[in-house]
From TrEMBL:
Post-translational modification: Acetylated. Deacetylation by the SIR2-homolog deacetylase activates the enzyme.
Its EC number(s): 6.2.1.1
Binding site for ATP: 387-389, 411-416, 500, 515
Protein name: Acetyl-coenzyme A synthetase
Pfam families cross-referenced by the UniProt entry: ACAS_N, AMP-binding, AMP-binding_C
Family that this chain belongs to: Belongs to the ATP-dependent AMP-binding enzyme family.
Gene source species: Plantactinospora endophytica
Length: 655
């Protein structure tokens, strides 16, 4: 991206907050001024939302950038803040987690019960020799024990590294080795797509190559057979459920390592993103309170992310529990046993706040409007989106079909590295625009710069950067300070570079345009994949689209689009050809002829990561390596076979 990014998409719709939500909102417009006046004093007040065993002496130590220290000298226990203090305040009987297993089994766990379980797990881990500073790998399905395991580690000061349950043995091995983990917490398996899916064999394969692992703590979830090493393996129900439920939490330094979470980005070796204690919890709790407007007494909150993604860390475990939320947690896939499962769960638990990913929304669009219509979704009052840019059409569909036209949508931009939400509307303040994450939150300074690090004017595009340190920022890459500096702090002097392209509209509101590595250079113009995808999805026949730049002899790169039609659309034979022609015209009309795709393929599925991000790298391979000739409609297996041949054993190591 040599110059600024072309600014093609025009979107003028705007939705002010509902009056009742605005007047009762947790955070109002004055928060922006308050934070602008004195940023550190603002964050200091937010840290006051937590219970500290020892007050800090200094809010921020930034004398050795990019290595920040927040709330220097302060001490606290994260699990105490998420559990004990709510019980002490008389809220022990409040449900913390309504859990729904995929096969239909369920549990409701109160704060008092979650504290008891966490204390037992903390005692069991201590008995297994885990002490403060040790690393523990967690490889679990979406069961309450995943949250308990994380909280138990936090409680004893062990640093957890959650590895997504869909990752391969190699991915797990690399992560265990990089962090020298001492214990792995896993399960026999979990339920996915209507059947048990084993986890223990993957762990066994990994542990054979990981001499640092002393014990494997195994939750019995599916009851499937497991190989057993009586030296190393320990059943959760034997070790944890028989342990004492009394455990006194010790306070740790504000900069004590809380967790490592691996993110692979585009290069091979995954980066162990390190988060610490006080600043992380402060920003996770504040943003959850501010962005989701959580009223802990009345709301039922549901974040549908996997716990192996940073979203599961900050907005299932730490943010919501620090705030005393009641939440729903679901084990399985959205189409098991039927495509209305999500909405059935919203109806059953009267969910008021739903936080999900654009990929899920677009999948629901593909399945059709009539599915959510069969359920009572009237409990919902606020909707959130995270993980990718949400195209205006998906945003509008979400608002109309899930939010019944009345719920504000918060499009939240952040990263594993940022630890918590950075750019988002405030639901009681911001008049939202479909597809825009709008403004940096109070206390956050984001900007868009050109390649000379100059702030671009309103209406311009470029690189998204963060100008000032923030409490939940990554502290380093585990074991590799130099890579931390090189990756995030070297492109622009003194600025954190997030790797994303963005533009400012004429009002100065921010629009995320995807990873800069994905930006296409077509006849000398930088064109964002996001904008072309949004244009495609704005056509009534399209549910989802992924766009890549493929090498082209005349234009340098040419735009190739993979498009999933909506459920009802006929794509057989001539109808498919006609649709493709129409879509090329549609993009050309919406964004201008420069953005007209050279090629459009109709496909049933797209390759995705755990957080629903499209793996454009694989699609680029497909677009470049295969001579497609006249084949304009790729059949199911054609794309999928090509795609899966690029992935080991069908399991992806991407984040
Ligand atoms: C939380 C999370 C981070 C990358 C980020 C960006 C993309 C996330 C987004 C978004 C546009 C949003 N991203 N949220 N892009 N609008 N609301 O996703 O963390 O998995 O580390 O990914 O995801 O490209 O840089 P992570």
């Amino acid at each position: 991206m040599s110059e600024t990014l072309a600014n093609l998409l025009q979107e003028t719709r705007q939705f002010p907050p509902p009056a009742d939500l605005a007047s009762a909102a947790n955070v109002k417009a004055d928060a922006y001024d308050e934070a602008a006046e004195d940023r550190l004093a603002f964050w200091e007040r937010q840290a006051g939302r937590l219970d500290w065993a020892q007050q800090w002496d200094q809010v921020l130590d930034w004398t050795n950038p990019p290595f920040a220290k927040w709330f220097v000298g302060g001490k606290l226990n994260v699990a105490y803040n998420c559990l004990d203090r709510h019980v002490a305040a008389g809220n022990g009987d409040r449900v913390a987690i309504h859990w729904e297993g995929e096969p239909g089994d369920n549990r409701s766990i109160t704060y008092a019960e979650l504290l008891a379980l966490t204390s037992q797990a903390a005692n069991a881990l201590t008995d297994l020799g885990v002490t403060a500073g040790d690393r523990v790998a967690i490889y679990l399905p979406m069961i309450p024990e995943a949250a308990v395991a994380m909280l138990a580690c936090a409680r004893i000061g062990a640093t957890h590294s959650v590895v997504f349950g869909g990752f391969s043995a190699d991915a797990l091995t690399n992560r265990i080795q990089d962090a020298s983990a001492k214990v792995v917490i896993t399960a026999d398996g979990g339920f996915r797509r209507g059947k048990p899916s084993a986890l223990k064999p993957t762990v066994d394969e990994a542990v054979a190559k990981c001499p640092t692992i002393e014990h494997v703590l195994v939750v019995r979830r599916t009851g499937q057979e497991v190989a057993w090493d009586s030296e190393k393996d320990v059943w959760w129900h034997e070790a944890v459920e028989t342990a004492s439920a009394e455990h006194t939490a010790e306070a740790f330094d504000a900069e004590h390592p809380l967790f490592i979470l691996y993110t692979s980005g585009t290069t091979a070796k995954p980066k162990g993103i390190l988060h610490t204690t006080g600043g992380y919890l402060t920003q996770a709790a504040y943003t959850h309170h501010a962005v989701f407007d959580l009223k802990p007494e009345t709301d039922v909150y549901w974040c549908s992310a996997d716990i192996g993604w940073v979203t599961g860390h900050s907005y299932i475990v730490y943010g919501p529990l620090a705030n005393g939320a009641t939440q729903l947690m679901y084990e399985g896939t959205p189409d098991t046993p039927h495509k209305g499962r999500f909405w059935e769960l919203v109806q059953k638990h009267k969910v008021t706040i739903l936080y999900t990913a654009p990929t899920l929304i677009r999948t629901m669009m593909k399945w059709g409007d009539d599915i959510p219509k069969q359920y009572d979704l009237s409990s919902l009052r606020l909707l959130g989106s995270v993980g990718e840019p949400i195209n205006p059409e998906a945003w509008i569909w979400y608002r109309e079909n899930i939010g019944r036209g009345g719920c504000p949508i918060v499009d939240t931009w952040w990263q594993t590295e940022t630890g918590a939400i950075m750019i988002s509307p405030l639901p009681g303040v911001t008049a939202t625009k479909p597809g825009s994450a709008m403004r940096p939150l109070p206390g956050i300074s984001a900007d868009v710069v050109d390649d000379q690090a100059q702030s671009v004017p309103d209406g311009g595009g470029g690189f998204l950067v963060l100008r000032e340190p923030w409490p939940s920022m990554l502290r380093t890459i585990w074991g590799d300070d130099q890579r931390f500096i090189d990756t995030y702090w070297s492109r622009f002097d003194g600025l954190y570079f997030a790797g994303d392209g963005a533009k400012k509209d004429d009002d100065g509101d921010l629009w995320l345009l995807g990873r800069v590595d994905d930006v296409m250079l077509v006849s000398g113009h930088n064109i964002s994949t996001t904008e072309v995808e949004s244009a495609l999805v704005s056509h009534p026949s399209v549910a989802e689209a992924a766009v890549v730049g493929a090498t082209d002899p005349t234009t340098g790169q040419a735009i190739v689009a993979f498009t999933i039609p909506r459920g009802s659309v006929d794509t057989e034979g001539d109808a498919g050809e006609a649709l493709i022609a129409e879509l090329r015209e549609h993009v050309s009309k919406t964004l201008g002829p420069i953005a007209k795709p050279r090629q459009i393929m109709l496909v049933p599925e797209l390759p995705k990561t755990r957080s629903g991000k499209i793996m454009r790298r694989l699609l680029r391979d497909v677009a470049e390596n295969r001579s497609l000739g006249d084949v304009t409609t790729l059949q199911d297996s054609a794309v999928m076979d090509l795609i899966s041949s690029g992935m080991s054993s069908g399991k992806s190591d991407e984040d």
